[in-house]
Amino acid sequence: MRSFPPNPHLTIVIPTFNEAENLPLLAKTLFSLPYESLKLMVVDDNSPDGTGQIAENLKIEYPGYVEVIHRDGKMGLGTAYIKGFTCAIEAGAEAICQMDADFSHPPEKILELMKALQSCDVALGSRYVPGGAVDREWPSWRKALSAFGNIYARIILRLPVRDATGGFRIWRSETLAGMPLERIRSNGYAFQVEMAYVFYRLGYTFEEIPFYFSDRQWGQSKMSLRIQREAALRVWSMLYDYRNLRKAR
Known about the structure:
16% strand, alpha/beta, seven-stranded mixed sheet, two-stranded parallel sheet, 9 strands, Spore Coat Polysaccharide Biosynthesis Protein SpsA, Chain A
């Protein structure tokens, strides 16, 4: 593993769809972190609530620190992240963070994840390592569903990642550049599993940092039965798609 600068240029990629209530506050919180080399890249799927225009306003409020990618419609989580990752790499980011816009992923944990990234290829925020947890207000059935989905993917793919379905991660840019992003097909929450499976198959190192996953306070959840069904089926096809993927180390 190559040496890494102590304060790498960090780009935070955030896909948005109807996050008008969350995005301004999230940007303010991120830019108040004690980290100088931080940029925000918003990938908006033509949100009808005006999130895209709010993102453009943030470009004016934080000149040089916010980039906005506008897409024609709701094209999915996976393709939004791939677009954001690719643009961030091309723009010279040394580290790339992925996180939700709804404060489910605590911004203050970014500093801890960045510290972990000094000794691994990808740092993962984890709900399922000691010290991590999901929203205590969730009903028992929802906690069980979340845990089952994660265990289901881990067992089928033989993944050592404890939180394979989590979406709070910071990557070294060279790690993402070394992954076959053009082959990633999942476009819902299975995207997180597929990315974890690919980096594991390629032999990249990781560390899981515990965090408390709180439910969104504003806006509507994007989870649906269709997304859950896609994730369940897609896990099996990953075994075939990456059967010949060689480990890099």
